Amino acid sequence: MEKNQEIKKVYMMVLTGGPCGGKTTGQARLSTFFENLGWKVFRVPEAASVLLSGGIKFSELTRKEALKFQENLVKTMLTLENTYYELAKGHIRKENARGCLIICDRGIMDAGAYISVDDWEKLLTANGWNTIEMRDNRYNQIIHMVSAANGAEDFYSVEGHSCRSEGVSLARDLDYKAAAAWVGHPYFDVIDNSTDFETKIKRMISSVCQKVGIDTGDRLLTTSKKLKFHVLGPLPPDSAFPAFQDFNVEHDYLLSTGSRVQARLRKRGQKGHWSYIHTIRRPHPNGQYVEVKTQMTARDYNNLLAQADASHFKIIKTRRCFLVNNQYFQLDIYKEPCHTRCLGLILLETYTSLEGKALEECLPKFLNIKKEVTGDPHYSMFNLSLREEWDSTQKFCRSLHGKKNINNVCSATNQDACNDHQGK
């Protein structure tokens, strides 16, 4: 744990959700957890609650007034978040400082959940803003705490909340709107009510620790895992999907600095706006692997592309993100140029703790899902991107999970390929 505590970074995340979803409790527990690790924690207050508690009733505003209110709300949020971010940057420069976690009680995209898509786009354009910068590049992670009105109705209550009066039906609607506003963020986790509340909170904390790269040992054990499914084409028309966001995604594997270290780049964007991520994956003493993802500039991205591993194709995809049954899905549609093994390939991914019939029921019914391929090396991005044929290369990885006896499954000259190459 000491090694993890030495990470000096500013990690800004959004904690959002529907009414009575556990957001307030979750923020307190998350703050305490990271403070106990030696991190500095800043908590950005919910700007909407501050403004609404001053006598504003959104339902009484005209359309013009509502749009102006949302615009000023976003500007208020930007000012608050930027203030804490500057403080955080100053903090980590101190000699004995460790990381700094900024927890935003809702984020910019939440403001767009209560107006039409057209009005939101006009608001962004009028202020010179764009979705990639305001959603993807601004925050490291988004966590949506599903309302108790959706799956834990017996525990739904509005008592003790001065700004809340929603019934169960309205709460469900608001929960969906809040989640849908963030569809498309590359690190969006939906924490549902499939477990008891204590486990729900632990799942939330574990999700943050996993993204930050902190080993929590067995303190936050959960059953949630990433699942992957092979989908047969052709895809149904767009009208068959719920609200979705499409992105152009490119992955490049880089020459690594060690036999068991993996490095890759990801370029992701829409409408000419891009975000860039550099991922380093290395073994941890406990036998698992730790990923450290760093957001980077276009200039740094282009410089690192010179280190691309020539033994791999560039992976090009269209990534479609959407919500179904409180579950966040990413549908990767592989594009040319690519190896023939990737032609027409479509893969569906999600994180869930569901199993058996419950899992089957939550999967999108409008997709022709052939089979689950979680852990199947034939569907790992690392293997799919190899230029050589699988039956003639020594780089094919047959194990997708970090093992202590890693040499038992791969040659010593290619241990780096034995990692979980299912990168986002």
UniProtKB/TrEMBL annotation:
PANTHER family in the cross-refs: TRPL TRANSLOCATION DEFECT PROTEIN 14
Taxonomic lineage from the root = Eukaryota, Metazoa, Ecdysozoa, Arthropoda, Hexapoda
Q: What is a biological process (GO) this protein takes part in? A: photoreceptor cell maintenance
This protein's species is Nyssomyia neivai
Which residues lie in coiled coils?
Answer: none
| GO molecular-function terms, A-Z | GTP binding; phosphatidic acid binding; phosphatidylinositol binding
Q: What is this protein called?
A: NadR/Ttd14 AAA domain-containing protein
**Which top-level group of life is the source organism from?**
Eukaryota
> Where in the numbering of this chain does the NadR/Ttd14 AAA domain appear?
13-199
